[in-house]
UniProtKB/TrEMBL annotation:
Alphabetical list of Pfam families matching this protein: Myb_DNA-binding
UniProt keyword list: DNA-binding, Nucleus, Repeat, Transcription, Transcription regulation
Organism: Hibiscus syriacus (Rose of Sharon)
Domain (Myb-like): residue spans on this chain: 16-68, 69-119
Region (Disordered): 1-20
Protein name stated in the entry: MYB305 protein
Length: 290
DNA sequence: AATCTGACCAACCGCGGACGC
DNA sequence: CGCGTCCGCGGTTGGTCAGAT
């Protein structure tokens, strides 16, 4: 290997003992921030030395990208962001940096942590591999609809309007179609079967239409144009390029999933995404299928 | 009040690709 | 072509904190 020990990579024979490790101090943060403000980022090993930091270039880069960079977004991931992570992960797998590119202000580290702490926890509780098809099905059929529901709830409460959602009898190919969400409140009773809903910030359009304009207000989309063959999401992105297009994901429904009558007891989706009933139900279905 | 436990997340580590000499 | 260095990515670890017991 070329890099025998990258922590020493700036000069192999140099004093390793002087290199600081562990949590960054305010002083170090200030040094790094000021240096980058003056000279820009990049050339991390040189930067570390010139800034007077007793850190590896690698450590400086990580601190800057994951914590100090001005456009880092703080706080919990929104349901929209969670939904996007689930979708992009189903498409690209553990390509965290690639996924992060589509969530402005979020770092690959943050997304990776989210996946490991939240998503894989659910997989453990289900006693299935987090990368297995079964788990992906569960994500599609249980989790994503609940996130969508959450998105709808938060947006409708913020707009003070009960969102009228005209039911569609049509299913759009290659679009997510989810099982019904039972135990809807009266407000949400409009949501029933086989409709396609999209969170705020998402617009749906076909490749036969023009690039859509940003839609900022709709809370729930349902689409009944049967002629569509391909679909895209467009997520609003104020800081990134003018819209992000993602090829429509295939949400192939499985017979197993179709047979599920979910019994949702809780609306606390962001914390307890699946309650025990859900988990046992899913386990039983899996066992029946085997 | 003390201890335990689990969740969260910042930071580290190893690896591999790119690049220059 | 081989070697050394830099950089970025994904996996992993360990510290901290809040809630449970």
């Amino acid at each position: 290997m070329a890099n025998i020990n990258e922590n020493n990579m700036s000069s192999p024979m140099e004093e390793d003992s002087e290199l600081r490790r562990g949590p960054w101090t305010l002083e170090e943060d200030t040094l790094l921030t000021h240096y980058i403000a003056r000279h820009g980022e990049g050339r991390w090993n040189m930067l570390a030395k010139c800034a007077g930091l007793k850190r590896t270039g690698k450590s400086c880069r990580l601190r800057w990208l994951n914590y100090l960079k001005p456009d880092i977004k703080r706080g919990n991931l929104t349901p929209q962001e969670q939904l996007l992570i689930l979708e992009l992960h189903s498409k690209w797998g553990n390509r965290w940096s690639k996924i992060a590119q589509h969530l402005p202000g979020r770092t690959d580290n943050e997304i990776k942590n989210y996946w490991r702490t939240r998503v894989q926890k659910q997989a453990r509780q289900l006693n299935i591999e987090s990368n297995s098809n079964r788990f992906l099905d569960a994500v599609r059929c249980f989790w994503m609809p609940r996130l969508l529901q959450k998105v709808e709830q938060t947006s409708s409460s913020s707009t003070q309007t009960s969102v009228p959602c005209q039911l569609s009898d049509h299913m759009v190919p290659s679009l997510p179609t989810f099982p019904p969400l039972p135990n809807q409140t009266t407000d949400n009773s409009v949501i029933t079967t086989e409709q396609t809903i999209y969170p705020p910030g998402f617009t749906y359009f076909s490749d036969q239409t023009e690039i859509p304009q940003h839609q900022t207000t709709p809370n729930v989309y349902n689409y009944n144009n049967q002629t569509l063959e391909q679909s895209y999401y467009n997520i609003e992105n104020s800081s990134g390029p003018a819209g992000y297009d993602m090829e429509g994901l295939s949400f192939a429904s499985t017979s197993t999933m179709d047979s599920i009558e979910a019994n949702w007891m809780s609306n606390e989706m962001t914390d307890n995404l699946w309650n025990l009933d859900d988990i046992w139900q899913f386990r039983e279905l899996g066992e029946m299928g085997n």
